[in-house]
Amino acid sequence: MYPYTNCTSLAPLRDYLARLEAEVLCNHSHVDPEDMTLTEDELRDKYLGPRRSSFFVPVCTTYLLIFVVGAVGNTLTCLVILRHKFMRTPTNYYLFSLAVSDLLVLLLGMPLELYDMWSNYPFLLGAGGCYFKTLLFEAVCFASILNVTALSVERYIAVVHPLKAKYVVTRNHAKRVIGAIWVLSVLCSIPNTSLHGIRPLYVPGRGVVPDSAICMVVKPLVLYNLIIQITTILFFFLPMGTLSILYLLIGLQLRKEKMLQSLEAKAGRDSDYHHVRAQQKKVRRRQVTKMLFVLVVVFGICWAPFHTDRLVWSFVSNWTGNMHEMFQYVHIISGVFFYLSSATNPILYNLMSTRFREMFKEVMCHQHLQRLGSRKYSPSVTRVTTRSTVCEHVPSGNGLPLANLEEYETDREGERSNEHAAVFD
């Protein structure tokens, strides 16, 4: 996530990098007499900072809580979309891609960061592990914001240009866009990844210090700072500005539709069956848009500290003691919000989408039924058991709540012709 994960090591490492660059430019190495009397542990502590972060225990506790919520929630999201064909809409494909991105961060990125906080050096995974770690964080960062942007563009077309959406916003188109998003994210991650590598601590007059290898920026910091600034503009400020404009236009369109609906109601033209069905679809569409708008707002709030952290690191060159102390807390807060963004989406689906909430219950109850079947319960006992627990309101065989079965049957034809509509209500 950052060039150096252990926040208590940032200032020593920055000074060490600055000294290395100065030595390369001046073509000589300055020998500090004090270094000749220090032990290897003291040298590592002086130039690389403490081996273990002083924030490890509270951060680890917070991360583990986020991990449990995020891993379970995003796994349920993927299972719901994979197991139910009617949930495979263009909108939900983007949500599936976003869930995969969140799972990669939680299952692969978080353990690597926690290990770095536990033992900042030596880095044991070699150059390949260093490249993988950097590429992973960069790629999922880019893929997440691009998925949210593509999802919002799809919502804009569905709301503002509904006729065009029938031909433009399709499942195949969503698949192609998602594939392009991941390819582009990986390609854009290569420049920053290429700047990283394994570097042991070299002290003039003492040579290479054992057990000091660390995954860090090995190329000039000016290149790293430039890449961070460019990617922050391209993959945060520009997308968030675009999202703001899109949802402003969507809000104006929905407001216009609501005013027209009120005028029609006053004119007494709201009793026709087809008119009622059309109004119900508009209500569901507004609910979907509202949920996605909240998702975008939460996404921006969670990612703003992360990009603030990176920009501060790239712009500040002379660190004072007070600046370093304040930046430690910024670094910790940005990390918590970074991972929190991977756990909030399933919570939003559950709170704001009736059908996702019912599908989550169905998936959990399906696992419960499988465990009961493995214990060789009879079908009658199973029905009694599940009806008395969380499965009381399990969807029927087609995956919909029993109370909404008739509504689903009447909507099936409309959903075939209007594929872009997300399965929320």
UniProtKB/TrEMBL annotation:
Question: Organism's domain of life?
Answer: Eukaryota
Q: Which organism is it from?
A: Alligator mississippiensis
Q: Which SMART domains match?
A: 7TM_GPCR_Srsx
Q: Signal sequence: where?
A: none
Transmembrane segments annotated in the record for this chain = 55-82, 94-115, 135-157, 177-198, 226-250, 288-306, 326-351
Which keywords appear in this protein's UniProt record, sorted alphabetically? Cell membrane, Disulfide bond, G-protein coupled receptor, Glycoprotein, Membrane, Receptor, Transducer, Transmembrane, Transmembrane helix
List GO molecular-function terms, semicolon-separated: neuromedin U receptor activity
Output the InterPro entries linked to this UniProt entry: GPCR_Rhodpsn, GPCR_Rhodpsn_7TM, NeuromedU_rcpt, NeuromedU_rcpt_1
GO CC field: plasma membrane
Q: What is this protein called?
A: Neuromedin-U receptor 1
What does this chain do?
A: Receptor for the neuromedin-U and neuromedin-S neuropeptides.
Q: How does it sit in the membrane?
A: Multi-pass membrane protein
Pfam family of the protein (one): 7tm_1
Q: What is the lineage of its organism?
A: Eukaryota, Metazoa, Chordata, Craniata, Vertebrata
- So what family is this one in? Belongs to the G-protein coupled receptor 1 family.
Q: Where is the G-protein coupled receptors family 1 profile domain?
A: 73-349
